[in-house]
Amino acid sequence: MAESWVKPSDIVKKLSDHVSSSFVFPIKVRGTVILDKGYYKLTDGKAGITLNIEKALELPVGAEVEIEGVLGVNLFYKEDTAILYPAINVNSYKVLDEEKEREFQKRVSEVETLLRNRTHYGFWETFSRLLKEKKTVKVGLIHGNSAQVWQDFMSAFRSAAGEYADRIEFVRFESSLSDEGLARTIEKVANSGVHAVFLLRGGGSKEELARIGGFESIKAIIRADIPFYIAIGHSFDRMVSLMEKAADGNSATPSIAGQELGKLVRVVSENESLRDGAKRRQAKESNFVLELVVRLLIIGFLLFFGIKVMPYLFKEFVLKDFSERTETKIKNHQP
After folding, report:
1. Topology of domain 12-98, per CATH?
2. TM spans, by residue (predicted)?
3. Model confidence over 92-103: pLDDT tens digits?
4. DSSP for 87-153?
5. pLDDT single digits (tens) 255-278
């Protein structure tokens, strides 16, 4: 009897089908809805579980809900590795504190309305303009109390900017990253005369990062009306914090933010050096041409003087004087 061979993917498929058929049972679970890499998850602050929903269904991000559904598994391939992880197939949900959720969504709408009227400061456009207008650009760095993330930012910046690092003057502001504390710091930074500001935060769970700032902080950014950029967490996941709604630019880590700023400073400064060098060469060439023209004019004048004026002077003064003196001598020798 011939042996029946299977591929690794066949084994994974059979295992997934077996788990899905045996590891399925109705469930009711409570937690907070978050959005992770475009997928809904339910979290209690310690762990999160994926939520499978119908396309027509939208879940309220940030709300505490009670979900009814079926617990199952999802199959995920990463390179050549297959991963099975639990997931909830959502049948229905209920917001536990509907009044609180309505208030939350109302404030989100208010902030979005305010942000529509706010000037957007693109990263490259803003810093390119500032570096052209000012010899030194003043940048504020906001970070948590006793946080050392600013050192990662500065190290990456100096490495990328090189000899042009002194084009940026940094001012550090230690702050609580709670909504009220951060809002007060943003107002302080805005009144310090900085031209732009970065909010820096190191790694942490999504739940911790989601608690950075809030509505009051966003309103403080809108009132300040200065370029505002953030680098929070050690993940490329977006929309972890409400602060990202107000930010003019997001970086995955403080190091990446510092590196990007350093690269920008180097590129702009090198281009300025090239332009200045071209201007100096052009000015030198212009001076050479001007000097050459002056010399040619002098030579032309001398030639004109020699051709036109010298014969006249010779005739009027030399020949005429010689003629008069000759006539005088002739008269003096006559008997």
Report:
1. OB fold (Dihydrolipoamide Acetyltransferase, E2P) (2.40.50)
2. 288-307
3. 888 887 776 677
4. EEEEEEEEESSHHHHHHHHHHHHHHHHHHHTSPP--HHHHHHHHHHH-SSEEEEEEEETT--HHHHH
5. 999 999 999 999 999 988 777 666
